[in-house]
Write a structure and sequence with these properties.
mainly beta, 2 helices, Immunoglobulin-like, globular, five-stranded antiparallel sheet, 4% helix
Length: 484
């Protein structure tokens, strides 16, 4: 009998790794199912950008990774395996598929091992991430990395003193600090931490079971400044929670997933819409217990918008949340299901209209397989993502999808005070003639064709950043919030 990739992953890495290894041996569905499912497969085309090769000179198995765009216009990420020590890598790849291995993790006291979740771009242009293992306590690290691949360990987790086994990179918050979660800790329930770019570490909150246990998803900072955190297990029904937490560690509200049709095992981060509601996925639960898309409103009430697996060819087991595209739709992936049971891509509107975009197919020519995380929207509007397996070496792939989204400019942090400097990413920026914050002109410096900095002008208010280039005027991915 097939064991599903989506079977609840123990938040401790050894057990999780066993689930990962089981997932390699997928069973192709019978032909009758394929014929029925083919009718609902999406018409979109996914192109392979890069095939991971594994071994000592390449990465393998990008695990729960959403790629991130760097200041040089390349895409950065991590792999759980591969590299010179076989303990994972950090890499960059161009949109045309030129791959560079930046760092091979070696474990031990001075380095991490087995990174998951990818990287976060800081306002300084460097990247911040975590590994599940390695470091002086052998229980994971927080690290920073330059675009050239120079890695510095900022903090080594030690279960006796703080946390253990972080799954995702920390997020950059409006106060300039980074906030993240660790799935283990002294109480074995997990925690929320704060860390500065120089490595000053503080435990913000220890989970207690009642408010959840084993946080896998990173926090999301809402426009109100609070941290919103899905927690994979615990709560009143032991099926997970969502916690609203101040950056000082005070719980403001909690939602308890009810199991069954209402969803369970939330491991993907939340995404906030311009209207204020949050959206994400649960890996389990729903009408067929194969995952859900849900909405969290301002009253802290969750509504299930889609239950996976209800139709032939639908995806099952969405793992790591959704991406809010510039078209206002939410893009995500499922680890399994689809026409060939190799995973899918989908999008959904804020009102819950669900569209199956693409079924991955590993049965022919070793194509992509098992996308565990949503894609990222590159500033040209194209979508890029990774699959955990598949490709010519069955070590995973980087793929692209053109869904007709428009070009935009991006920033690591869409908030700041008047007079502060803002890092802006884009394309064709060399010919920039004007930058405005909510219509107010700003001073700017172009550093390359793919990144620039601008100063938040005096007298402006929260609104869109617009950049006028020789190719036309583009606006920011989201509204920039001016702090007072």
């Amino acid at each position: 009998m097939q064991r599903k990739c989506s079977e609840k992953l123990d938040a401790r890495p050894k057990a999780a790794l066993r689930s990962l290894n089981f997932c390699v041996n997928k069973i192709i569905l019978v032909a009758a199912f394929l014929l029925c499912a083919g009718a609902v497969a999406g018409a979109q085309t996914v192109a392979t950008v890069y095939n991971f090769a594994g071994g000592t000179t390449d990465g393998a198995n990008p695990w729960y990774v959403t790629l991130v765009q760097g200041t040089d216009g390349q895409l950065y990420g991590t792999t759980y395996n591969g590299g010179s020590a076989g303990m994972g890598t950090a890499f960059k790849v161009t949109t045309s598929g030129t791959f560079t291995l930046l760092h091979s993790f070696a474990g031990g006291a001075s380095d991490g091992a087995n990174p998951t979740g990818g990287l976060t771009l800081g306002s300084d242009g460097n990247f911040y991430g975590t590994t599940q293992m390695g470091g002086s306590g052998t229980e994971g690290v927080v690290f920073t990395m330059t675009t050239a691949g120079a890695v510095t360990v900022l903090h080594s987790f030690n279960v006796l003193n703080d946390g253990a086994f972080p799954w995702e990179p920390p997020i950059l918050a409006s106060d300039g600090n980074f906030y993240g979660t660790a799935s283990g800790g002294a109480s074995n329930n997990g925690l929320v931490y704060k860390i500065t770019s120089s490595g000053t570490y503080t435990t913000v909150y220890n989970f207690d079971g009642t408010h959840g246990t084993y946080p896998i998803a990173p926090p999301t900072q809402g426009t109100d400044g609070f941290l919103y955190i899905p927690v994979s297990e615990g709560g009143s029904s032991f099926c997970g929670t969502i916690v609203k937490l101040s950056t000082a560690g005070v719980v403001s509200n909690t939602y308890n997933f009810p199991c069954g049709p209402g969803g369970s095992f939330p491991i993907g981060p939340l995404v906030q819409s311009s209207a204020g509601a949050f959206y994400s996925t649960t890996q389990n639960g729903g009408s067929r217990n194969e995952g859900t898309i849900y909405k969290l409103n301002s009253s802290f009430v969750v509504t299930v918008q889609h239950s996976f697996g209800n139709l032939f060819g639908d995806g099952i087991y969405p793992s790591a949340g959704v991406l809010l595209g510039t078209d206002g739709k939410y893009y995500g992936s499922t680890a399994e299901g689809g026409t060939f049971d190799d995973g899918t891509l989908f999008n959904s509107t804020p009102t819950g209209t669900y569209t199956h975009l693409y079924s991955f197919d590993n049965s022919v020519n070793l194509m992509q397989m098992a996308p565990l995380s949503p894609p990222v929207e590159y500033t040209t509007g194209l979508l890029y993502g990774v699959t955990e397996f598949g490709g010519t070496a069955n070590a995973g792939t980087v793929y692209s999808l053109n869904n007709g989204l428009s070009a935009f400019v991006n920033s690591p942090l869409f908030s700041g005070r008047e007079g502060s400097s803002v890092l802006i990413l884009g394309n064709h920026l060399s010919g920039t003639s004007k930058v405005t914050f909510n219509g107010v002109p700003a001073k700017f410096v172009v550093h390359s064709d793919t990144h620039m900095t601008a100063t938040v002008p005096r007298g402006t208010s929260s609104g869109w950043i617009t950049v006028t280039t020789a190719s036309g005027t583009v606006k920011s991915r989201k509204v920039f919030a001016v702090q007072r």
